[in-house]
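Q: Got one fold?
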Amino acid sequence: MSKEGRSYTTEDKQEAMGLYLRGHANTEIARKLNKRYNYNMTAGTVARWAEKGGWDEYRSQVEIDLIEHTKKTVVNDMAKNMHELEEVRQEFLKNLREGRADVRGHEFVKMTEMLGKLQDIETEKQDMVTHINKCINEALDEMEFDKRIKQKFLRAYIGKLRGEDV
């Protein structure tokens, strides 16, 4: 059964919007829905829905949220590692005070130095991530790429940062 004109359901539009927010092109969205539901949808229909619904703003916000989530994940992972190292150091101190440590003082100094270096590295890493993201966004703004291409690049870039196969 083929759909014509304005007879698409809210669910059809929501499904199209979901694909759009994941970076699919209008032609690809129309093709997928046509195949799945035997429609005669055009890329123009999807483009009108996107424009009328402000999907570009949603997609931009999704990408901003994704970048922020990635940054938080990286920060949390490093913070967790530093916390674990501090716990080991504190346990060592406790054992040392209670006379149960069979470790030399220079090992404790090394552990403390490592913790300090990790904290310094974390600060430098955060500064570098911020700088890189700023440079990438400025470079993308200067290029005359289609917005969809920029968004596709940012998704691939974030995926690479996460270690995902994009």
